[in-house]
Design brief:
The complex is a heterodimer. Chain A is mainly β. Chain A has no helices and eleven strands. Chain A has strands at about 5, 10, 20-25, 35-40, 45-50, 60, 70-75, 80-85, 90-100, 105-110, 115-120. In chain A, strands 2, 4, 5, 6, 9, 10 and 11 form a seven-stranded mixed β-sheet that branches. Chain B has no helices and eleven strands. Chain B is globular. Chain B starts with a strand and ends with a strand. The chains are: A mainly beta, B mainly beta. The interface between A and B is medium-sized, with 19 and 22 residues.
Chain lengths: ~120, ~110
């Protein structure tokens, strides 16, 4: 069955960096676009970034542009999010998500989420 | 940027009742809309995609309709496990966006 397992979250000071990872299994990872979506405490969902199946295309929300970098390693079935210059408003649960069909940007499988806390 | 507005913010209903949730888009998004269900402490679950197609394993009591700017999610008869927060999401244009959510509470 499809599994997405995030790791790499934790407490970081404002201005610091974190690298999130998402280990995928149960599907042909290299066939699907993938995305990161976050949820601030008690708030709604916010799309952060997506990456195409071959890494040819990436896109970012304005809140992430210039600070976050999405990447993937199809040989390792892994998705990454490098987060730099972190701010308090980046605090939340970060989900990796698989698109429903190849490049269709609806998300049918989500990881359990990983908490990122940005605080001094 | 396309803004999705969900209404109402909160609904209090009883099991067995029928409920309709609304999602309005700030501009036309054709049928490029999905609905998700999220329970406390869990990741969202895809219910409906392309406005009216049920995702794999979703019970028939969930249905979606609409196109353009006005969309609805209907649950024909509420089960206890349906009390959760529901979000709509559009993929018509960048950036992808979600509605603010409708909380469905047990009355």
């Amino acid at each position: 069955q499809v599994q997405l397992v995030e790791s790499g979250g934790g407490l970081v000071k404002p201005g610091g960096s974190l690298r999130l990872s998402c280990a995928a299994s149960g599907f042909t990872f290299s066939d699907y676009f993938m995305a990161w979506i976050r949820q601030a405490p008690g708030k709604g969902l916010e799309w952060i970034s997506y990456i195409s199946s071959s890494s040819s295309y990436t896109n970012y929300a304005d809140s992430a542009k210039g600070r976050f970098t999405i990447s993937r390693d199809n040989a390792k079935n892994s998705l990454y999010l490098q987060m730099n210059s972190l701010r308090a408003e980046d605090t939340g649960v970060y989900y990796c998500a698989k698109v429903l069909v190849s490049s269709t940007l609806f998300f049918d499988y989500w990881g359990q989420g990983i908490l990122v806390t940005v605080s001094s | 940027e396309i803004v999705l507005t969900q209404s109402p913010a909160t609904l209090s209903l009883s099991p067995g009742e029928r409920v309709t949730l609304s999602c309005g888009a700030s501009q036309s998004i054709s049928n490029y809309l999905a609905w998700y269900q999220q329970k406390p402490g869990q990741a969202p679950r895809l219910l409906i995609f392309d406005a009216s197609n049920r995702a794999t394993g979703i019970p028939a009591r969930f249905s979606g309709s609409g196109s353009g700017t006005d969309f609805t999610l209907t649950i024909s008869s509420l089960e206890p496990e349906d009390f959760a927060v529901y979000y709509c999401q559009q993929r018509s244009s960048w950036p992808l966006s979600f509605g603010q959510g409708t909380r469905l509470e047990i009355k």
